[in-house]
Amino acid sequence: MSDTSFIQPQLQSAIGLLQNGKMQQARNAFDTLCHQAPQLTQAWFGLAYACSQLQDYPASIAAIDNVIQREPKNVKALIFKADQLVYNDQERMALAFYEGALQLTTNQQNLPDEITRGLKRGLALREKYDSEYSNYLLNALQKKGYQRGKLSQRFDEALDISFGKKEIFLQQPTRFYFPGLPQRAFYERSEFPWLNALEAKTPHIKAELQTMLKGSEQFSPYLERGNDEPNFVQHLDIVDNLNWSAAYFWHYGTLDDAIAQQCPITKRALDEVPLPFISGQTPVALFSKLKAGIKIPPHHGLLNTRLICHLPIIVPENCGGLRVGNQTRTWQEGKALIFDDSVEHEAWNNSNEERVVLLFDIWRPELTEDERRLITDMLVAVDEYSEHQ
Known about the structure:
This is Aspartyl/asparaginy/proline hydroxylase domain-containing protein. The protein is of the alpha+beta class. It has 2 domains: 5-127, Serine Threonine Protein Phosphatase 5, Tetratricopeptide repeat; 186-387, B-lactam Antibiotic, Isopenicillin N Synthase, Chain (Jelly Rolls). The protein is built from 13 helices and 12 strands. The protein has helices at residues 8-19, 23-36, 41-53, 57-70, 75-87, 91-104, 113-143, 153-162, 195-200, 202-213, 257-262, 264-271, 369-387, and strands at residues 186-187, 220-221, 244-251, 254-255, 285-290, 295-299, 306-314, 320-324, 327-329, 337-339, 345-349, 355-363. A hairpin with a 2-residue loop joins strand 8 (320-324) and strand 9.
């Protein structure tokens, strides 16, 4: 590093001129310093500030560019240049430098007040242009006849993602990933013709459930330590207790005869559903009960080759909802929700009463019969391997 000690008296003198409001003299002094010691960041900053105070924004920008060229990650310099571009009526160009500063300070805490204020200006400018951009696009689309919610839910979601209103969530199964499947959070009821018959049985299923609820011995904790759900170990309010509980008809491919006999109508209804049968794996079918005020935290399912179905049986008023990816839906008694649980999802019950759904899994409809057979053979082999270890 070059020795700049010889220049320190002139630097302090120039800073004094700035502090005393003698901007033209300060500019001249800093300009001389920049020629004498071009590596001195403080001199270029001083020159940039003096020029800015004199409203010579092009000269101020040129001076701060010398800092950024030497120190491209200097957050203070990036914010300063962005501010000067704003003063010079170049907001769009300024946004790029604010964005650079915002990216460099992501997750940083206890930043100097000067930096924090600059970042807030950047966020405000970003919001302004995001709003202008989205409004322009929406107006242009509406002139062509676009109406949200009328033609394509996927296009509506694409716009929300483009406008920064929604995040992109992808399949991230914790056990097995099958490539090439559509990235969909929810499926529509109309895509599964067999759902009509199941939903029609909701009153009869509810009657059997209410009889079962008079004795709680059929329900057990949905999550228990060591049950292949390591992401939940820290969530003690739903592990090894009945805050989130289950009464299984089918548990990893094994039928519970006692519950099947206690709820024969529900069992027959499930028999008419295209459940996947893989030895030791699936189907999984159960009454899933979530107590009042309990939240199931965000998590991912084991496989992306299945879908999870909720048939809401007991749904209190203002119960809460189910978020899958960037979409949230609410439960309505007797109207099924079908979703890909390999996408991050969470659920909550904000009411003062229990919520119960009939939960079961089905094959992804996009899989061919050959693919389903191959997946079945593979998962059985995985299970056999684990048993021998």
